[in-house]
Amino acid sequence: MAIPAAFDGLTAHAGSLFWVQSGEDGDQLVRWTVSDGATRGAPAGFAIGNEVHAYGGGSVAVSDAGVWGVSSQDHRIHRLSAAVASPLTESTSCEFGDLVVAGKAILAVCEVAGGDRLVEVDIDTGHVRSLQETAGFLASPRSGYGRLAWLSWEADQMPWDSAQLWVATYGEGAGDLGTPVLVAGGISEAVTEPTWGPDGHLYFMSDRTGWLNLYRWDGESVEAVTATEADCAAAPWELGYASYAFLADGAVAIRVRRDLEDHLMLIDADGVSRTIDLPYTAIKPYLCAVGTAVAMIAATPTTAPSVVLVERDGSYSVLAGQEPSSTVGRNPERMSVAGIDFLLHPPAESDGKWTAPTIVRAHPGPTDEVSVRRDAQADYFTRQGFAVADVDYRGSTGHGRDFRRSLYGHWGSYDVADCATVAQYLIDAGFTSAGEVFVCGSSAGGYTALRAAGMAGPFRGAVARSPIVDPQRWEQSVPRFQRAHAAALAEGAIAVRSADIECPVLLVHGLHDPITPAQDTLALAAELEARGADCESVILDTASHTLAAPDLAAKVLDAELAFFRRLLGHSESAKRT
Questions:
Q1: Nearest to 250 by CA among 271, 264, 233, 226
Q2: Which of 69, 245, 417, 523 places its Cα 20 to 30 Å from the Cα of 2?
Q3: Are 234 and 241 in contact (CB under 8 A)?
Q4: Which tens digit of pLDDT belongs to each residue from 360-407?
Q5: What count of other Cβ atoms lies within 10 Å of the Cβ of residue 473?
Q6: What pLDDT, in 10s, does the model give residues 439-458?
Q7: Alpha-carbon separation of residue 497 from 249, 500, 521, 535 (angstroms)
Q8: How far apart are CA 286 and CA 275, in angstroms?
C-alpha cells in the first residue's frame, strides 16, 4: 500500500517556508521559496525531530541569522544548510523542543528527568542558560517587545485541561527574567498557543467560555478576538502548534472547526470576519503568513494533506502534495446519531444505495478528533468492498471543553456505547448487516475496541492495535507528559480480562512500544489462546507505537483484512441495490 508523504511543523520566515516532510527517507527538512520551489533545508539523511513530552514538536527555528533544527538521532540542536549540519549544543540528557529564535539566542523547552526548563541557547557558542524551571511542564516560550511569554501546567494536569500563561520582562541574551505575571489560565481554564502580535499585544487561545477561542492581552486586560461556539485550536499533544497567523495587511487567519470540518477564517483589521471558501476540509494546526497569503497543511475529502498557499480571494496553489481532485474516490459523509458525529467512508465501487461489511473505528488519544479528509488506511478497506465509520465519541476534541472532558471516569463505557450506537444505526439504516460489523481502534482506541469485544453488542469481531489493556498499569508506565491524562481516564476504568472477551479478536503490537506495554497484549493473547478463544496476534519487532511506517502499515492492514474476511467466510464486496 502506497502511503503518501506526510507534512508537519510548517513555519515561515522572510517569504520562505519550511516544513518537515516524512517519507521513506525519514523526517526531512524542506525549504520553499518562490524562486526555487521546494529544496532541501538540511543534508540528506539528517532526520528532524525531538521527543519532548513524548510527542515532540517545534524542532525547527528560523531567523535572518540562519536555520536550526533538532536531530532525532543525537538530540542536539544543529545549525542547518542544505549541505551541512553543524552541532550547536553539546550532548546532554536534555531533550530540546519548541524552538524559536530571540535575537542572538534560541529559546527552547528542555525536558530532563525531573521536569522542564525554559532555556536560552546562544546561537554562536551553544551555551545553554536556564530561564525557568519546574517539576511540571513548560511550553511556548515567545519573546517580544522586551518581554517573554510562556505556558506552564502542573504535573497532575494536561495542557488542554488546565494551563497558565505567564509574562515577564526579558532582555534577549542577557539578564534574568523579571517577576512573572499571570495573564490567563487556571484550574478550570486551558490556555495554549501564545504569540506576540504586530500590535504589541499578546494573543492566545483559551477555553474559558467552554470553547477554544482567540484572545489578546494589552498589558492590562484581556479581550476576545473571536467569540464563537467552535474550537479554534486543537488539543496540544505536540509543541509548536499555530492555529492562527498575522498577515501583512493586519488581518488574522484562524483555523476553526465545525461539524468535523476545519475552516479558514479571516478577521480583518476592522474586526470584520469571513470564512474563505476552499475545497479543504482538514487543516493541521500549523498556519503561517507569507505576506497577505496563508500557508497551511490541508487535505480534502479525497486527497491527502498537502502544503498549500491561500490568497485572500480564495485562490490557492499547492506547493507540495496532491492537487484537490473530485475524481479520487468517493467523499466520506458526515453523519450524526444520538449527538455523536461520525464519518462514513463508503465502499469505493459503490454506486447509489449500498450495503457492505463495515469497520467502526475508535480514534486514539482518546483526546483526538475525526477529520473530513482522505485516509489511506480507510481507502485500503473501501477498495476491498468495506465501509469505514470513524466515530468522534465522547472525549474527542473539537466539540468544546465539556465534551472533551466527558470521558474522564467513563472510559470503556461512554466510548464503547457511542461506537455501538453508530454500529447499530448503520445496521438499522441498511448500510450494513448484523454479523458484518467490526470494531477497530489504536492505542486508547484499542482499549475501546477490546472493551467493546467484552460486551454484548453488534460487533462480529474486534481489532486492537497497540492497545491499552490495563488502564491502571498503563498509568504507571506511560511517559511523564501523559500520566495525568492516564490517571483521569483510569479512574473507574477496568482492565480487559480474557474471560470477558465475547467475540473474535486480532491483537497487534510493536514489541518495543514505548507508549503502551506490549507485555500486556502478549499476556492477554496467551490467556485467550489458553481458554480456546478465537484470537489472532501480530507482534512486530519495532518500537513504533503508531505502526504507521509503510512497511509496518502494510503488514498490519493485510493481517486485518485476512481477519475480517475469515470471519465473514468469504471475500465480501459491496452489494449494490
A1: 271
A2: 69
A3: yes
A4: 999 998 989 999 998 989 999 999 999 999 999 999 999 999 999 999
A5: 17
A6: 999 999 999 999 999 998 89
A7: 59, 5, 11, 13
A8: 18
